[in-house]
Amino acid sequence: MAQLLEAIYDEIRPLLGQGKVADYIPALASVSPHQFGLAICDVNGEVTSIGDASTPFSIQSISKVFNLVLAINHYGETMWERVGREPSGLPFNSLVQLEYENGIPRNPFINAGALVISDMNESRFASPHIGMRDFVRRLACNGEVVANKTVADSEFEHRARNAAMAYLMKAYGNFENDVDDVLHSYFHNCAIEMSCEDLARATNFLANKGYSVCADEQVLTADQNRQVNALLATSGMYDEAGSFAFEVGLPGKSGVGGGIIAVVPQQFSICVFSPALNKVGNSLLGVAALTSLSKRIGWSVY
Ligand code: DON
To answer: Where does substrate bind (predicted)?
Structure first.
C-alpha cells in the first residue's frame, strides 16, 4: 500500500501549483496551495498515508455526507419527500433549478439539498453542530476534531447566496426553522477541520456496509449504505460527476477546502487533500490522484 501511495504522489507532484484556492469564502483564501496529502483506511481500520495527510483542513462539503447520515438515522425513507436523488448538472450553489422544481433540491449534496437536510437535523437536535461534531469525532477516533470559528463566521457574513436558497425553499414550504439558525449550523459543519487520516477513518463505514470499525457502530444499514454510495457516485462531484465516474469510477465527495473522499466498497476508504481547485470547485490534484489510484488498482464500481 505504501508503494502505491508513493507512486501516485510521484505522478501528480508536477501538477502542484496548478488550480486555484477557493476565495469566495475569504477565510479560506489564505490557505497554501502547495499541499498534498493522501490516506487510505482498510476495512480493518488500518491507515496508510503520504504527504500532508495529518494536516487538518476545512472539510466543507464533505460534511454533507455526515449530515445526510444523521438525517437518514432520524427520518428514514420520509426524508426523500423533501430532497431528490438526481444529479443536478449545475454548479453546487446554483439557484435556478430550485424554482423550476418548486423548492425541492435535486440531491443532498448541492448546497440547497444540504440546507434542507440541515433544516431536518435542526428540528431533531438541541445543538445540531455539536451533535455533528461529536458524531465525526467518534467516526474518526479523534476527540480533538473541532470547527474553525473564523471560517464559520466568514461564511455566515457572506451568506447571501445560501440564505437566498433557504428563503426560496421556505417560500415553497420546504424549510421549517429560522434560516439564520440553520445557516449557523450548516456553516459550523462545513468549517469542521479534519486531516486525510481522520476523514479516511471517518468515512470507512461507507466501504464496510455501514459499519464503522473505529466507532464500533453500525452507522447505516447495509441497504442505506449502498444508497448513500449511489448518491455519492451520481452527485458527489457536482457537475463533474460524469467525468469522475468515467475516469475514476468510485463514489466520491469533494469540498472546496480541497478534500475529496472516495470509496472502494468492501475494500477501503480514501481521502485526498490539495487546496487548489479546478473550474468546478473540486481539488485539481485530488481528482488527478484518484484517477491515478483507480487505474493502478484496476478497480471501479462499474
Ligand atoms: O456553502 C458553501 O458554499 C460551502 N460551505 C461549501 C461548498 C463546497 O464545499 C462545495 N464543494 N465542492
So the answer is: 61, 111, 155, 162, 186, 238, 256
pLDDT of residue 299: 86
**Residue 84 to residues 63, 123, 163, 243: CA-CA distances in angstroms?**
18, 20, 20, 21
* CA of 25 relative to ligand 1 center, distance in Å: 9
Q: Is 283 a pocket residue for ligand 1 (Cβ < 6 Å)?
A: no
Taken in order 226, 230, 233, 235, is the CA torsion positive or negative?
Answer: negative
Q: Is the pLDDT of residue 289 over 90?
A: yes
Mean pLDDT, residues 143-168: 97
Q: Tell me the domains of the chain and their CATH numbers.
A: 2-297 (3.40.710.10)
Residue 60 near ligand 1, beta carbon < 6 Å: yes
Q: Is the pLDDT of residue 239 over 90?
A: no
Contact 172, 102 (CB under 8 A): yes
Question: Is 238's pLDDT higher than 90?
Answer: no
Q: What angle do CA 218, 37, 248 make, to 5 degrees?
A: 70
**Would you tell me how many other CB atoms lie within 10 Å of the CB of residue 26?**
14
